[in-house]
Fold this protein.
Amino acid sequence: MVIIKLQYAPGRPAEGHARSAIVGVVASGNLEVLLERTLPETECSVEIATPVHGYDEVWQAVVADFVERASPGGLRISINDGGARPDTVALRLMQGVRMMEGAQ
Amino acid sequence: MTDIATRRSASRDSASWFLASARERLAGLLDPGSFTEVLPPSDRVQSPHLALFDLPAAFDDGMIIGRGRLDGREVLVAAQEGQFMGGTFAEVSGAKLVGLLRAARDRADLPVLLLLDSGGVRLQEANAGELAVAEVMRAIAEARSAGVAVVALVGGRSGAFGGAGLTAATCSRIAISEQGRLGVTGPEVIETNQGVEEFDSKDKALVWSVTGGRTRRLIGGADTYAQDTMAGFRDAALFLLERVPAFDLRTLQAEQERLASRQSRLGGCSSATEMWTILGIADPEAVRDMDDEAFIALAAKVKGLDHDGR
């Protein structure tokens, strides 16, 4: 199992007031993303657990692109990966912040 | 605004149960916003064993438990995620379900809905999983003894096999959709052990004719047939909650009689269509291809489908 821990300092806090959200499932080619509004608004952490070795740089690129686009300040994001492709990862991350835009 | 809200809820109601994830099923089944999860993903109660096999864990171990409302009525619910490790019973997922059922037994005032979607025991945690299934069956029996209705809803991609088949058979009532499958030994396992001549697990028509929802309904293995939608399973659950047999000697004797009579009537058949012919269905070949409404009308005419056993 590869554990990748990434830290960011987004410019804006994530929108909405939902405390947590989960999207996706751990299945072949899929992943689950757990988002929790537990960090200071200027911070964002992303922790990835993946059984696929050798893709650290791809994860860093996909997550950095997501942070740039979504500015998920305050979110602790945790990922259990089932071997998802980069486009699926990007989609799930965007789905996750969209769910956090809800009220609770 | 009303129009948009209505359309949204209509699309929610007509979404496929088969294709949905466990969380989507709970959202579609229960009253909006009514679900409170016990041990949610943020608690990270996940399998401690899968990392040994270099396999990813899930934050909820593929078992979602909690409490919600079904058409205004308080219920306890458990939903298996069939896409994660085949929805399997393992140490954590099993303990979550056992805990829910024991809570149901102790409270004795809330019915339980089990949204089964499972190939059975997780092989990587086989001993814990087998123990969990035994504990689940005992917990269901104790809950039923305490007067709690335990209703199984079967319509997911992994069906309900192995321990999930046993679990379903222990419930007060079972609802199944056309896509649902119910059994103990799954098709791939039969083929692996007995050979492809005995059972070709790639022959989907064969698999469904033996284990699928329509056969199960017609031979009394399921108590109602649900359309493969959120609304279909909601209606089925509400229907069955009103028709729960007492858990007593009479029910068990009725179940024994039902199974003995089925064995003597249908035990010699080698295909589903043979069974359907004996059940008095005029055109058994048509059962597979008819739409849900036609099938429901047909099942209503078959004698002996509804019984006091279980």
